[in-house]
């Protein structure tokens, strides 16, 4: 049952770590209210002005934030799983280590938003402008990044398992230590990428351009590299067990020490 606040005045109140599960705060004046660590699960915050507020650690799972202003808010480690963000403003917000699992961020203005270590599992980031953004250690499992602009982005140690990166131009994107197992990288551009020991097990790299890429000791087991361009790529010591290399271009590629057990090398171009 949600908290009943009918007729209450909360302006300036200290609600640190307060439990306001299911509370209807639409229309309330939250000026000066301290909400750090508060539990606002399933609360109604429609249209609320929370610009620049400290909402670190706040639990907003399932909360309704339609039309809310969260610009420049501190949402570090906040929980927003299942929250409704339709029409909300999040520019400049600090979402470091925040949990946004399943959120639809397509069309949102993410200018200045901090996403280091954010949990973005199954989040829709299709078409987003993430140019130059720091997504170090972000969890992007199953995320949709198709059509997103990632030029100059940092994805160091990010988890992109099963992410959709179809057709992405990843030149200049930092992917050191990233996990790309099962990711869809079909027709992606990875020319000259530095990917030593990267985990691409089961990834779809059909038609991908990996010319001159550094894939030393990369894990490409069961990966689909059909028609991929690996010209000049360094695959020394790479694990290519059961990989599909049908029609792949391997001209000038270094395969010394690579494990090709069970790999399909039909029509490979050397």
UniProtKB/TrEMBL annotation:
<dbReference type="Pfam" id="PF00805">
    <property type="entry name" value="Pentapeptide"/>
</dbReference>
<dbReference type="InterPro" id="IPR001646">
    <property type="entry name" value="5peptide_repeat"/>
</dbReference>
<protein>
    <recommendedName>
        <fullName>Pentapeptide repeat protein</fullName>
    </recommendedName>
</protein>
<keyword id="KW-0677">Repeat</keyword>
